[in-house]
TrEMBL record, chains A, B:
Matching InterPro entries: ABM_dom, Dimeric_a/b-barrel
Residue ranges of domain ABM in the record: 4-93
Coiled coil region boundaries: none
Molecular function per GO: monooxygenase activity
Record keywords: Monooxygenase, Oxidoreductase
Gene3D superfamilies, sorted: 3.30.70.100
Pfam families: ABM
Name the record gives this protein: Antibiotic biosynthesis monooxygenase
Keyword Oxidoreductase assigned: yes
Top-level taxonomic group: Bacteria
Organism: Rufibacter sediminis
Length: 102, 102
């Protein structure tokens, strides 16, 4: 299989976790139409109300990188940026060997 | 959506990462037939040859817990156990809010 996976956290400023999650849920609907996107999940950590986790699987890193060009994505990023507590960290990069569900 | 996700690492003793991955890939085929399983991915960290990551999404924690009862799973666990470097740590638990691909 050998796909490109990213698993990372975005942290919002106090009180903005839910708003950030809602923007990312909207983004997931756009981004998932991009070439090579197999998975784009938005999750929360039950113990951390202001953080949102994004778990992505793509055919390649290149496909992931191109997803920023999907119409509407940049607008959502610019809505999300002022909610963030600091710069987003680079997520964990994994190579998917196989499994089930994508 | 609100599903139960687990993201965790199993580390093999030196030289056994590939064998562990192959057992987990076999397990993913069995486990993914269980009730409530949406995702069961086996990945590796390009920087850590002896570790294997498992990323799961289930309808509920209960469905996840029941997956150990799928025929054949216990046998695969007993094949994997001697390959592990120490006890498996509990993975990261997340609540999937939504997204795309499952």
């Amino acid at each position: 299989m050998n796909k490109y996976a990213l698993h990372g956290k975005l942290s919002a400023t106090a009180g903005n976790g839910e708003k950030l999650a809602s923007i990312l849920l909207e983004a997931s609907q756009l981004v998932s139409t991009a070439k090579g996107c197999h998975l784009y999940l938005i999750s929360k950590d039950p113990k951390d109300a202001e953080s949102v986790w994004v778990t992505e699987v793509w055919d390649s890193q290149e496909d992931h990188d191109c997803s920023l060009l999907v119409p509407g994505v940049r607008e959502l990023i610019s809505q999300a940026m002022p909610l963030l507590a600091g710069k987003p960290e680079k997520g964990q990069v994994l190579e998917v060997l196989g499994g089930a569900g994508i």
